[in-house]
Specification:
Elements: E1 2-9, H1 14-24, E2 37-39, E3 42-47, E4 50-59, E5 62-70, H2 78-92, H3 110-114, H4 119-125, H5 131-150, E6 159-161, E7 173-178, H6 182-191, E8 197-200, E9 212-214, H7 216-224, H8 230-236, E10 237-240, E11 243-247, E12 262-263, E13 270-272, H9 274-287, E14 291-293, E15 296-303, E16 308-314, E17 319-330, H10 337-343, E18 350-361, E19 372-377, E20 389-394, E21 400-405, E22 408-409, H11 418-432, E23 441-452, E24 464-465, E25 468-470, H12 485-491, H13 493-505, H14 511-514, H15 522-525, H16 528-532, H17 546-560, H18 563-570, H19 576-589, H20 592-625, H21 629-643, H22 645-659
Parallel strand pairs: 6-15, 7-8, 7-17, 8-14, 11-19, 17-25
Antiparallel strand pairs: 1-5, 2-3, 3-4, 4-5, 9-13, 10-13, 11-12, 15-16, 16-17, 18-21, 18-22, 18-23, 19-20, 20-21, 24-25
Length: 669
């Protein structure tokens, strides 16, 4: 017996595939072929002195097909038959990318509107607290995301420049933060430094559709900045587990591409009570004189030479609001219209559509041990053009938060769908962790688009205009492989804070100076090729096991290394030497991975990545040759900051770039 074909047929309707095999598919005419025999799951095709067995099965809301030869030697005509079966299956069941349904909520609820399209999603959101509000938000976010992807070259212009306007009077605030999830953390830090801060948030403040995980050494950044005390940090810890697992499905992988479990005990091992953390930050912001406008949506901004004027709408009342500030900080994430206007067609290259839920009960005790986290896991191969990946993090009092996501290359015909992912989530969750979905006790829905950018250099993405700077997912400078927006912001909090403080102190609020306030790291920017290798190009079909095989190869290499190597990589601290050692080791031990990446990325993206790698190499050499600059900047501060503030900001930014940007620690003191 030998397997001749393994293929995914991208449809959840496995019965339709069986019907096609039984009734419609015509095997090629061969002299030695007998009459095909229908079986419950496919066909038996006599061929010479053996036969071929064709069968299908369903997993992850898609259909898989295999063909086995039942003979000890190759059969005449088997290659022709298998080739035609694959070609005909691709023609009969091509990739399908559902469009977002147009709905009218003036005549019906979101549940009624989406029920014909996403029945399982509607059913379970009705059982989630605030489910109607959150499902409206899922639909709103996907609609806004799709609009940005479909019209990247002509984004909605929400920021206007008028040097003759907005100059009279005094600004109401020094800083106006747009977006209150990651934004409130940074806003609280700056308010405690004496700045007049306004935070504008579209949602009721303190509500968010994410949970956050981090490690102790990463959170230390917020303690060092004085935003949290060690005691307050302990209060926001929902759970601290002792080990995290990383394992990808490998049952269908080629020989040699299976891997053992990668243990990461100090990576994302602390579940943060996100809403409590936001409340504490909000309280500290207000205590420092800051103001929060929640349920207020940013509409537009007009930027003048002396200040920026913001127009907003208070959503409950519909009233218009107007406010002026010295500097706008865009923290609106992937939904930010400012981010799309800043970068147009190069706003985002990739995205992780992520859905899930915080679940307070309903799993049998033996299903999961809350001392452990499931950091990354796949339980099947490619499903409808996506390699689905799970995360499971234990929370407070036996709660678990479970996410489902995939790496996705943005395409106008296939922007990436949250609603499709939720329909998958509710239907295949029992495949991942044994449960009765109807008996689970939902606490809240968790979802969002986590964007990535394929950087070729430190300046190929705009993060600033005059009197405007982007942070977090709106800047999209976090790792395109690890995609930890919260972790990336916290890790770079000291860097962003020190640079922004200098810019505000010396009124260096033009685009050139503000563009230096960025969390770019060349050591993580270079990883985008690996994330590209986990994306199925739109309109193409690839071997269903290929992405799992690549993931197992790379994570298997990390599993063979000391624990600190994996921790260094995942926490964005990879050095040039470590990166090259791991890449060469992967290429030597598994040369086939180079062909796989070539097939998935193509020659143009490989050429682009070569530029990213050369830039990383250049930055590493510069970091080595100019390693004296961080020490010089500390020595030069007393005179440089006073006499040449723009030079001082450049020295600070360069010091961070030569250290933090290459995975090394830097202390400004």
């Amino acid at each position: 017996m030998k397997q001749l074909l393994y293929w995914e047929i991208p449809t959840p309707d496995t019965a339709a595939v069986r019907h096609w095999l039984h009734q419609d598919w015509q095997p090629p005419t061969l002299d030695n072929r007998g009459e095909a025999i229908a079986t419950p799951d496919g066909l038996r095709i006599p061929l010479g002195d053996g036969e071929l067995s064709v069968f299908v099965w369903s997993l992850q809301r898609t259909t898989y097909l295999k063909v086995f030869r039942w003979a000890e030697h190759p059969l005449v005509g088997e290659r022709q038959l298998v080739k035609q079966l694959k070609r005909d299956a691709i023609r009969q069941f091509p990739p399908h990318y559902p469009q977002l349904p147009e709905i009218d909520l003036s005549q019906q609820s979101i549940f009624e509107a989406l029920l014909p399209h996403y029945p399982e999603t509607v059913k379970h959101f009705q059982a989630i607290p605030n489910g109607e509000y959150d499902l409206n938000r899922v639909y709103w976010w996907e609609k806004r995301w799709r609009e940005g992807v479909l019209n990247p070259e002509t984004p909605k212009k929400v920021v206007q420049f008028n040097t003759e306007a907005s100059n009279s009077g005094t600004p109401d605030y020094d800083l106006i933060y747009l977006g209150g999830a990651l934004g409130v953390i940074h806003a609280a830090v700056m308010a405690r430094r004496g700045y007049r801060v306004l935070l504008m948030e579209r949602l009721p403040f303190g509500r968010m559709n994410r949970e956050w995980n981090i490690s102790r050494d990463e959170f230390q950044s917020l303690i060092n900045l004085g935003l949290f005390t060690p005691e307050e940090f302990e209060q926001v810890i929902a759970c601290e587990y002792i080990d995290g697992f990383n394992k990808f499905f490998d049952a269908n992988n080629p020989p040699g591409t299976q891997a053992k479990v990668l243990h990461t005990p100090k990576v994302l091992n602390i579940s943060v009570d996100a809403e409590q953390l936001l409340r504490i930050c909000g309280d500290k912001l207000r205590a420092a004189g800051g103001v929060i406008w929640d349920e207020t949506e940013f509409v537009s901004a007009e930027i003048g030479s002396a200040m920026a004027q913001v127009q907003a709408t208070h959503l409950p009342s519909g009233d218009s609001k107007e406010v002026r500030g010295r500097l706008l900080v865009d923290a609106m994430g992937s939904a930010s219209p400012i981010a799309w206007q800043l970068n147009g067609g190069r706003t985002f290259n990739s995205v992780c559509p992520t859905v899930g839920a915080a679940i307070s009960g309903g799993f049998d005790p033996q299903v999961w041990d809350h001392q452990f986290g499931d950091v990354l896991n796949s339980h099947g191969d490619i499903s409808r053009g996506r390699q689905l990946i799970w995360e499971l993090f234990p929370g407070r009092d036996g709660e678990v938060t479970i996410y489902l996501f995939h790496y996705h290359e943005i395409h106008p015909e296939n922007p990436g769908s949250l609603l499709e992912m939720y329909e998958d989530f509710f239907q295949i969750l029992p495949e991942y962790r044994r449960c009765d979905v109807d008996k689970l006790q939902w606490r809240k829905a968790t979802f969002g688009y986590i964007p990535g950018h394929f950087s070729q250099g430190s300046r190929d993405r705009k993060v600033a205009w005059d009197r405007l700077v982007a942070i977090g997912d709106a800047a999209s400078l976090q790792s395109p492989l690890i995609f930890t927006g919260f972790g990336s912001l916290v890790r770079n909090m000291e860097r962003l804070t020190q640079l922004l403080d200098t810019a505000l102190t010396h009124d260096l609020l033009d685009a050139v100076n503000l563009d230096r306030i960025r969390a770019y790291q060349s050591n993580v920017a270079v990883t985008w090729l690996f994330s590209k290798g986990m994306m199925v190009p739109t309109g193409k079909s690839i071997a269903p096991e290929k992405i799992n095989a690549m993931l197992n190869v790379f994570f298997g290499l990390l599993a063979d290394e000391p624990l600190e190597v994996a921790e260094t990589f995942i926490k964005d601290r990879t050095s040039w030497g470590l990166f090259n050692r791991l890449a060469l080791k992967a290429a030597v031990q598994h040369p086939e991975i180079l062909l796989w990446i070539w097939q998935l990325a193509g020659p143009w993206d490989l050429l682009r990545w070569t530029g990213s790698y050369l830039n990383f190499t250049k930055e590493a050499l510069v970091g080595w040759s100019l390693s004296w600059i961080p020490r010089f900047s500390r020595w030069a501060q007393p005179w440089a900051e006073k006499r040449y503030p723009s030079l001082w900001l450049w020295l600070q930014a360069m010091s961070y770039s030569l250290t933090e940007g290459l995975g090394r620690r830097f202390s400004p003191q």
